[in-house]
UniProtKB/TrEMBL annotation:
Its main location: membrane. Keywords: Amino-acid transport, Cell membrane, Membrane, Transmembrane, Transmembrane helix, Transport. Residues 15-204 form the ABC transmembrane type-1 domain. InterPro entries: AA_ABC_transptr_permease_3TM, ArtM/GltK/GlnP/TcyL/YhdX-like, MetI-like, MetI-like_sf. This is Amino acid ABC transporter permease. Pfam families: BPD_transp_1. It is found in: Cell membrane. PROSITE patterns: ABC_TM1. It comes from Microbacterium psychrotolerans. The chain crosses the membrane at residues 12-37, 57-78, 85-101, 150-171, 183-203. SUPFAM superfamilies: MetI-like. Belongs to the binding-protein-dependent transport system permease family. HisMQ subfamily. It is a multi-pass membrane protein.
Amino acid sequence: MGAITDNLDLWGEAIVGTLVLFFGGGLIALVLGFIVGAMRVSPVPIARAVGGIYVNWIRNTPLTLVMFFFAFCLPILLQQRVSPIVLATAALGIYTATYVAETLRSGVNTVPVGQAEAARALGLTFGQVMSLVVLPQATRSVIPPMMSVFIALLKNTTVAAGFSVLNLGSVRTWLSERGENQLVVLLWVMVVFVILVLLLAWLQRTLEVKWRIAR
């Protein structure tokens, strides 16, 4: 326990850093993912093409390279210094948005086509069909795979450790400079991640029960 109790300041900053990356990246991923997912199922060919290019380009690029671009190339293009944690959060969000979009698209495909056609026949626009008919039903079916995406996002926050961001992925390096046993620190990091993943699993079960009752 000494590795934690003697270094509460670093552990606190590391956990906060991980949570900032997770919630910030998750928010970006949800908003952007819903937009791209809608584009992927849009009746407009250009929208589908743009959505497809974004998903295939970003998803097939390693997260480390995406993070590298945001950490080193983007500040040069912007010609100004940006906080590393802001850049890492944006990189995580933009990368994870591709998986959110594909998960959402798979959920949309589970909704019978006839329902969307009936809604369009009643005069609803594409946006109204998606928001009022398709997405409420698709959301129920994508809760488990969507939660898997966010569990992966939580684990991917450790990639930011290589880009000057203090989080659970880099706390080992910081504590090693204080003379702490690195193996012990890694074991405690694993424990923290297991606890966080179990909380997400609990949230998933809660949402599944809620939606099941709503049906």
